[in-house]
Amino acid sequence: METILELQDVNTFYGAIQVHFDLSLSVSAGEITCLLGGNASGKSTAMKAIFGLVRPRTGRVFLAGEEATHWGTPRRVAWGLRSVPEARRLFPYMTVRENLLMGAYLRRDRRQVAEDLEKMLDLFPRVGERLDQVAGTLSGGEQQMVAMARALLGRPRILCMDEPTMGLSPLWVDRVLELIQTINRQGTTVFMVEQNARAALQIAHRGYVLRHGTVALRGTASELLDNPLVESAYLGGKVI
User: Largest Cα–Cα distance in the chain?
Assistant: First the structure.
């Protein structure tokens, strides 16, 4: 299977503080890959490194086999990276419709954008009920669906999701995970950073567990769920 995203021996720093230590991971096209870890394990910085918001001091980033280490963020987005950021990051005073169309900002195929918007409303019917509502008045779960639909309107080659279940009720967690699986089955590659290990591993194909900026464990999702070392590597996060 084609490797569509790869980090090779990445070392990142904030000033003198090192965050990653030879971080290496890969994402296969068509799969759901999760990056797990507790607080301050380096998960969100890994996402920033993928988007070029943090540049590795050493190491390399590849997109579909092409080195992208020195690409700026706009070029990576133009290539096909799309983000569902932590805490959704909607424009709170804009309507849901306006937020959604921001996801298609780089597209010029207006007719196709309109068709894709209709597909998003079929996939996320709750979003369709809220199109003219100001986004900041939505519930956390509704905002998460808008953020996902917005990213999908950019036709991502990789949909990158940062803590998609954070702050959601158990019912919304289940719904969001179901939607991620549906999106993946429809052909979108998903890379998700997640603290809720059990939830992520139940839908992912493979995963990585970060501890103090280093990959402590890697494998298929089923291997990680069955691995008795996962809990200790996960800084106390309950997995099994």
Answer: 52
Percent residues over pLDDT 90 in the chain = 63
The pTM of the full predicted model, rounded to 2 decimals, is 0.91
Nearest to 161 by CA among 30, 34, 2: 34
| 137 and 209 share one domain | no
Both 220 and 107 in a single domain? no
Residue 148: Cβ within 10 Å count: 25
- Residues with Cβ within 8 Å of 186's Cβ and at least 6 positions away in sequence, in order, are none
R_g over Cα of the chain:
17
Report helix, strand and coil shares of the chain as percent, to nearest 5. 40, 25, 35
3-state secondary structure of 36: strand
CB atoms within 10 A of CB 4: 21
Tens digit of each residue's pLDDT (9 = 90 or more) over 39-64: 888 898 999 999 999 999 999 999 99
Q: Is residue 87 part of a domain?
A: no
Residue range of the domain that includes 109 = 92-155
pLDDT digits (tens, 9 = 90+) for 156-212: 999 999 988 888 888 888 898 999 999 999 999 999 998 888 889 999 999 999 988
CA angle 17–232–39, rounded 5-degree value: 40
Give the Cα separation of 1 and 27 in Å (integer): 10
